[in-house]
Amino acid sequence: MNDKNAVLEKIIKAFPFLKDAGKEVIEQMLRHSLITDIPKGKVIFFEGDECKQLALILSGVVRIYKPAESGREITLYRLGTGESCVLTASCIFAQDSFPAVAITDEDVVAALVPSNIFRDWINHYEIWRNYIFSLLSKRLSEVIATLEEVAFRRMDIRIAEFLLNTDKNEIIMTHQDIAMELGTSREVVSRILKHFEYEHLITLKRNHIAIDNVDSLKKKMEQNKF
Q1: Other beta carbons less than 10 A from residue 115's beta carbon
Q2: Is there a single domain that holds both residue 134 and residue 195?
Q3: Is the pTM of this model over 0.90?
Q4: Last-in-domain residue among 96, 124, 147
Q5: What are the pLDDT digits (tens) for 59-100?
Q6: pLDDT above 90: residue 127
Q7: Do 128 and 99 belong to one domain?
């Protein structure tokens, strides 16, 4: 995208707080950001990578997850339009390596900002400091909630909630996909889903889950959490 007006329009649409940021902030954004298309399934950062740039998401979804040596994964959070990764920001400030994996869940368009430039922005512009602090607060709450779920909530309740939160009666997803989302093993997910099917709550097909009894699944989800 070479048209500066088109670039600016796309950035402000995703990050509306920049609309009133002032001429200097906007000029800095246009001068130093590179608009990039990133295809679905592309790893942006591997665990241990150097954080050379910060991605500001203009469209699409990025998943941040933590892998274990056993091969299991747990999703920490997802990034959507108007968001960026606080782990990347922290990595840039501390000049440390990335502690997780970032991969695109959908085709993504992002504005990439070099790490040294972003450090300067944080030092000089309150609007960027406020943005990062607000992201930090949001992500910290999400990660704490995830840790609480993994540590304390029964897996059958978590799976019931996951199925209902898709807001679909038919879900195209593998048992392994669900396991990666919830930080457990495929075998555990398969066993619980089979039990749900035995209770006539769902019907299982290959890579496909049909919800047959929403009310009963909600009752299971609302059981004691601890």
Answers
A1: 18
A2: no
A3: no
A4: 147
A5: 999 999 988 777 778 888 889 999 999 999 999 988 899 999
A6: yes
A7: yes
